[in-house]
Amino acid sequence: MTHPRLAEGPAAFLTGMYISFWLPGLVLTAALVIKLPSILKLWRDPLLRAVGGLLLFACAVFAFAAPATISWTNRVTGVPNIAAPLVYSLITALSASWLLLVVHWRNGHTDRREQTRRATRWVVCVYAAVVVALWVLFALADVPVEQVRNLDTYYASTPFMREEILLYLLAHTVACTITTRLVWNWIRTDGLDAWLRWGLRFLGIGYATNLLFSAAKLTAVVARWTGHDLDWLNANIAPSAACIAATFVAIGFIVPHAGQYFHDRWLLRRQHRGLKPLARLLRPVAGGREPLALRATAELRLLRRETYVRDALLQLSRFLDENLRGRAYDAALALGHEPGRAQALAAAVTILEAVESGRHAPDDDGGTGEADTSYLLQEIQALSEVLRHPDEITAVRTRATVPAESMSTHE
């Protein structure tokens, strides 16, 4: 069955599929909020300023380009279509911010500082001149009939307005093409952080999609010049492409920060869970369960568990049998474990022996002297991890505790 709006024509169908201006605006605002603390803290960093400017102009574009905002701007000012040069100026400023961003990304090294300054001045001067020209051309044009969605095609042949439309689209297309090429070239650079590389991929897709915005607009304008009507490209395809592109760009800025943040949180929780077997084993030594910290941050919970474990190990250390640990280490090597694993297994065997024998009791003065605690305190994660493999510990412990005479006779 044919979709009812498709039966009315492609323009009506695409209007029904129209993507809201506010969704990418919200995503861009989220990206700006995430980046804002770094931007304010390191305001002298030109790269962060460029990122802040880009996100700010992108938010402004979608706020002022929304049809409802366009109608409001025209009504409040009392000037028909005054929203057009305003939106065009914001799009031009956004295009300039793309170029400034890649300039500072690619040429931000000390030895390229002067080159970066020249490129920055060139971009600012050229695009500032474009903005001035947009307002001059609008002042010269005769655009009395308000157009909220199809202004570019409605006035495609109007003197001065025609030149204004072509000027902002040309400035947008040039900036988008250069930015897309540089971003995709940078993605192939060696040594990039994985999260940054993924962020650049989203940025590259976003900038490439922006080219569809310009292509749709230009095609619709040229169609008007030749007497054809492809206004649906301008009213539906172009805004939709811009919304999709902006969403990808926003995600490109969010991914490196959010990805790294969640990755760090995951590592902290993984380390916290990793210490659970060792913390449980040392409860008799510590005199009870570790204190609860349900509302504490992941960092604080990990720190508390590490402190709990290390305090218990220090209390237990004078009751550890260093001779047993040496035999356990040799046994683990004999069983085919690599040295690092063998060291962790030997420490686990020694701790288990001390805990299970009850020699750690406070009134027990049968300690054999201070043991070497450097490994125990530094490698608590490795030590806790081997406790998850009781079969390996049992094999090492059995071999390490067999009397030497029995071993020699058996061999």
UniProtKB/TrEMBL annotation:
Keyword Transmembrane: yes
Membrane spanning residue stretches: 12-34, 46-70, 82-103, 124-145, 165-184, 205-225, 237-262
Superkingdom of origin: Bacteria
Keywords: Membrane, Transmembrane, Transmembrane helix
Residues annotated as domain DUF6545: 266-387
Protein name: DUF6545 domain-containing protein
